[in-house]
Design brief:
Length: 257
């Protein structure tokens, strides 16, 4: 089920997306230590007030130019995620191109799929995207409802999922959208975090500590910002990635780090 449609580069939003700027490095990327946190502690950055049309981000997630803390983060290219004890990070890889298209964090029995996209500097796209997600869910037999959240309106949904035996069941999901400066970050929470505020707290804390690296390239709105595997020591093979040959079928479509 497709739930994210890229706009044409000829849309009037694209003119704003071509404005370039040099992003500053946070200097805080890297594989987190065992004591890594998820933001909100002493020394953490505070994002400036959002321009009209963008999401409120008083405590993050941050643009790379807003970061001045020393929180260890895993560098995934367009996304830098804080390390949290007990979290599991999986990178989803597109068949054929082997392009990394999403990062999924499993923590405390729930998951959050994160993706970052190009967007206009001062015009949010979450409202339009949210409507498209709701329409797509409805057309496939799912249901959704808009609810208030920390970044504005969210979408809570029951997503139809086909089981191996052919039966279809509804799985809860919570769609969170954050409109930042020239980027849009989408998080899809699944499991208990989709329906329970207490269960969602660890993943929400991780989201607040996330950093988006938009880059200075001209990109059309909704273009996926490039992700990459985190760097490993020389000669090491990331868990879930085979050193040679094809991956086992069970690992096709995702890499675990």
């Amino acid at each position: 089920m497709s739930i994210f449609r890229r706009r044409s580069a000829r849309d009037d939003e694209a003119a704003e997306a071509t404005t370039t700027e040099t992003d500053e490095s946070s200097g805080a990327a890297g594989v987190p230590g065992a004591d890594g946190g998820a933001g909100g502690g002493e020394g953490a950055s505070t994002a400036p007030a959002a321009p009209a049309g963008l999401s409120p981000r008083p405590q993050g997630p941050f643009d790379v130019t807003e970061v001045d803390d020393e929180l260890p983060r895993v560098d995934l290219g367009a996304l830098r995620l804080p390390g949290v004890p007990g979290m599991e990070l999986r990178l989803e890889v597109e068949d054929g191109t082997r392009r990394v298209v999403a990062a999924t964090v499993a923590l405390s029995g729930s998951t959050a799929q994160l993706q970052a996209f190009a967007a206009p500097r001062t015009q949010g796209i979450w409202g339009e995207v949210r409507s498209e997600i709701a329409a797509s869910l409805a057309s496939s037999g799912g249901v959704s409802q808009e609810v208030p959240g920390p970044y504005g309106t969210e979408l809570v949904a029951q997503v139809p999922t086909r089981l191996p035996d052919g039966r279809v069941m509804a799985s809860p999901a919570r769609f969170v959208g954050v409109d930042g400066p020239r980027w849009f970050l989408r998080a899809v929470l699944s499991g208990p975090a989709a329906v329970d505020a207490e269960a969602a707290a660890p993943l929400e804390a991780l989201l607040r500590g996330a950093v988006v690296v938009r880059g200075s390239e001209a990109m059309a709105p909704r273009d996926l910002l490039p992700l990459k595997l985190p760097q490993a020591p020389a000669g090491a093979v990331p868990a879930g990635e085979q050193p040679t040959g094809e991956q086992p079928a069970a690992q096709q479509g995702q890499q675990e780090v």
